[in-house]
């Protein structure tokens, strides 16, 4: 659907430019084609530049485990987030991985906070979907860079299936009118006077929707 939309808009823009001058229309067409190529190629190149994932052996007793540990040490030593950290011993490698995990948690919390604020302000399900898509896509890319490793094709499909499901749910949460389901609970807890305060329903709905998006 997006491809059809992009082609349709491109045809209209090129047609408009051609009415001014046919040569100008041709130039606009090739300019747009170049832009589309960059939009597709740049992320692909950046993704492929990341090293392939390392697969640990099934058990530590395997003869392949020392080789895996050495490969992991070399991978971590080239990680710009771990410059200056000692990585000779296994304990030091585990501490480095623990540090990367904590940094990944920080990135996830930061993305969730941005989603909470932006979708709380937004009152449109479609805009929420775009905001969530932007935040989650950026988060996935940042975590891949943090660990200096690209996911496998299967992991990419799994990740972006989750991204797609999250975006879909974010677009629907705004239309669910969550406050209508929560209002009886608020009334029972704080009394009927709460529901008479102007803007209460809007604030409650915005906060609950934003919290749901952040959780997703």
Overview of the structural elements:
The chain is built from 8 helices and no strands. The protein is an all-alpha fold. The mean pLDDT is 83. The protein is flat, with a radius of gyration of 24 Å. Helices cover 76% and strands 0% of the residues.
Shape: flat
Biggest beta-sheet profile: none
Count of alpha and pi helical runs: 8
The total of beta strands comes to 0
Helix content: over 70%
Alpha-carbon distance between the two ends: 25 Å
What is the H/E order?
HHHHHHHH
Average pLDDT, to the nearest integer?
83
From the alpha-carbon coordinates, what is the Rg to the nearest angstrom?
A: 24 Å
- The helix/strand class is mainly alpha
| Contiguous uncertain segments of 5+ residues | none
Percent in strands: under 5%
Keywords:
mainly alpha
Summarize the structure.
By secondary structure, this protein is mainly α.
Walk me through the topology.
Elements: H1 2-20, H2 22-49, H3 65-77, H4 90-121, H5 125-147, H6 153-173, H7 178-190, H8 200-215
């Amino acid at each position: 659907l997006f491809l059809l939309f992009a082609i349709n808009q491109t045809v209209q823009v090129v047609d408009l430019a051609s009415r001014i001058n046919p040569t100008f229309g041709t130039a606009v067409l090739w300019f747009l084609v170049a832009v589309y190529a960059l939009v597709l190629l740049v992320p692909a190149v950046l993704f492929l530049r990341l090293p392939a994932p390392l697969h640990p052996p099934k058990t530590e007793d395997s003869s392949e485990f020392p080789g895996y540990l050495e490969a992991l040490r070399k991978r971590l030593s080239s990680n710009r987030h771990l410059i200056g950290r000692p990585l000779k011993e296994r304990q030091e490698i585990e501490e480095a991985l623990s540090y990367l995990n904590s940094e990944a948690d920080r990135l996830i919390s930061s993305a969730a906070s941005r989603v909470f604020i932006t979708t709380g302000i937004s009152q449109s399900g479609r805009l929420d979907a775009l905001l969530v898509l932007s935040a989650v896509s950026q988060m996935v890319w940042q975590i891949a860079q943090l660990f200096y490793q690209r996911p496998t094709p299967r992991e990419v499909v799994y990740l972006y299936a989750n991204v797609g499901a999250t975006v879909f749910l974010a677009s629907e949460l705004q239309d669910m009118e969550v406050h209508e389901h929560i209002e009886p609970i608020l009334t029972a807890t704080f009394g009927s006077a709460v529901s008479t305060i102007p803007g209460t329903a809007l604030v409650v709905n915005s906060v609950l929707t934003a919290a749901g998006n952040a959780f997703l």
